Amino acid sequence: MPSPVASNLISQLAQREFVRHFGAKPSLIVRSPGRVNLIGEHTDYNDGFVLPLAIDRSTWLAVNPRTDNHVRLHSTDFKESAEFSLADLKGNQPQWAEYAKGVAEKLLGEKHALRGFDAVIATDVPVGAGLSSSASFSLGITRAFHAVSAFAWDSTQMARLCQRVEIERIGVNCGIMDQLIIAAAQDGKALQLDCRSLTTKPAPLPVGYAVVILDTKKSRTLAGSAYNERRAQCEAAAKFFGAKALRDVSVAQINAAQGKLDPLIWRRARHVVTENDRVEQAMVAMNAGDALQLGQLMNASHESLRVDYEVSCAELDDISALARVQSGCVGARMTGGGFGGCGVALVKTGNAAALADSVTAGFQKLFNVAPAIYVTKASAGVSHEKL
Q1: Number of domains in the chain
Q2: Residues 195 and 270 reside in one and the same domain
Q3: Which residues are known to be catalytic?
Q4: Is residue 373 helix, strand or coil?
Q5: How far apart are CA 45 and CA 153, in angstroms?
């Protein structure tokens, strides 16, 4: 009987396309999930706390090792192919392939002996939706190199390596959350990540409640957004407090600084400081099985992101508001970097289907666009297996 990994529809697509594209059967399959963040937004690059889970949508790579140092890739989603030698990693490929070359560059820089491979990539993690499609792809490529080259796998080290690819190769000054949850996620649980120490704590999801992703279909790209600007503003605020990062600033301190800091910088800092506090409160609520409190914290997080951090938009505001008024929903907020992408809602499992129908109808009436709404479950992190 085939394993759940081998029998997944997107996995099967990658395997079929591998045969069509390369004329042979793949010997390995890599699964690298996307992620959704329950609470803790724009805190990761401030050394703070986040509370994400890996979702049941993934990037799949059907892989065969090669006997030389060439990497040949084909993306079923972009309908493009790319090829490069591990001896020549200059940047002249489509951007999705630059992630792969960046991973190779960093692994070689860490003195890992790499082997080439052929791979076909297929995914059901929507690109540009704020569910970490790029980190999912980067960790998937890293796992493929691990599988064919047999170097030691360390989840934290590989997460940091992929973060460096995003920062140094792609130009997005991101935090560690996306890479670390994809590398270290546990099946059936969210994880609180300490983005300074990179330690994790499992967090049980409330019994009887479902996590529902609300994809507005409004695409977003971090490199083209105000992400780097927000990070610079946070660094300016930390400098004002004489702190290494805003993680070291208390709610009392930020409240006392009103009128002393530039008003815009103060609002940005207030979001980060209060959001860290909300993550800590969310852990208490989850360990107590208190879904109502977790939902209230999610609602407060959205307001802080909308007003103080100004990374929401009409689509995210309205889809979250539509979800909140549905029966069984205890909280909803934007998730991800913002400026488009997805919301996330916590809803009683029995009400999830009705919520999806009502929110779809309401959102389509407002924006003439059908959102993608689906219930997800917490999955394990990146992995591979032989076929």
Answers
A1: 2
A2: no
A3: 178
A4: strand
A5: 24
